[in-house]
Amino acid sequence: MDTIDPDLAAVFAPWMARWGLTADGAPIVTPSSKLLPVRRGGEAAMLKAAMHPEEIAGHALMGWWGGRGAARLLEAGSDAMLLERATGARSLEAMAEQGQDDEALRILCAAAQALHAPRLEPIPETLVPLARWFRALAPTARKRGGVFAKAQATAEALLADQQEARPLHGDIHHGNVLDGGDRGWLAIDPKGLLGDRGYDYANMICNPGAAPSRDPARIARRVDLVAEASGLGRSRLLKWLLAYCGLSAAWTLDGDWQGDAGPAVRIAEMAAGWLEGA
Fold first, then answer.
1. Are residues 257 and 167 in the same domain?
2. Angle at which helices 137-144 and 234-254 pack, to 10 degrees?
3. Would you state the pLDDT for residue 160?
4. CATH number of the domain that residue 124 is part of
5. How many domains is the chain built from?
6. Same domain, yes or no, for 105 and 152?
7. Looking at the domain assignment, is residue 175 inside a domain?
8. Residue 62 belongs to domain with CATH number
9. Which residues contact 270 (CB under 8 A, 6 or more apart)?
10. 171 catalytic residue (yes or no)
11. Which residues constitute the domain of residue 212?
12. Which residues have a Cβ under 8 Å from the Cβ of 70 and sit 6 or more positions away?
């Protein structure tokens, strides 16, 4: 790891030694994790050192999935894990940007369905209930009103009447479902939530990037496609979309997320308008 920044090398070194790894690419730093492509023997893997509690909570869910619809968890430590590395060349982000938007969304819906499939193993105790996840929305709704108040009221109604509760990924989007080649499409980076499966379909409608939020016709088409593929129905999906977008914007405006709340606010307003016009 001579070419890696010394501070990053110090983060990875204990796990490299413990699990017998060699570096196989440049490190990747995100707001929540530090990652390094590695090899163990002839196997391509990804070493992930988490820097946020929700990332650590996701480790148990990766293990519970057992490689069914998700990258295999090869090793796990207190604040790091070793994952199967998806090495396929296809990208859902590229598909969405190059005229294959519908196909990319169908793949995401299929990925969600695979993750939501029943398992015999006991559900991990580390999963965060959706009601707790949504606590951040209420202060913003009181402070800002408008679409945030609508999102809060909708979230309260949904959380009081959760259907088909499942372990949830919590962040399914075009960058978190990767091409695993012969293994198919594999999910990574779960938040580790527990609740109504409808939540997992909202985020995929909003991504990738801000471009979809500027095109109401594109969002409307996505809602129809996901409502059918998921079996949720249009009205219930729109409610989860409104609740999710309100929460996402609240995290950015009044929480510790960095970024632009505009796209989430625009889509929340679309969802609220369609619900009111139904």
1. yes
2. 80
3. 97
4. 3.90.1200.10
5. 2
6. yes
7. yes
8. 3.30.200
9. 216, 219, 220
10. yes
11. 100-277
12. 62, 115, 186, 187, 188, 190
Chain centre distance of CA 199: 10
Report the pLDDT value the prediction gives residue 249, as an integer from 0 to 100. Answer: 97
User: Please, which residues bridge with residue 35 across strands?
Assistant: 28, 48
User: Parallel, antiparallel, or unpaired for β 128-129 and 80-84?
Assistant: unpaired
| Chain centroid, CA 91 distance in Å | 16
Amino acid at 134: F
Name the nearest CA neighbour of 190 among 166, 165, 170.
170
Phi, psi of 154 (to 5 degrees): -65, -45
101, 171, 189, 200: the active-site residue:
171
Same domain assignment for residues 44 and 117: no
Q: Which pTM value belongs to this model?
A: 0.93
Residues in the chain with pLDDT values less than 50: none
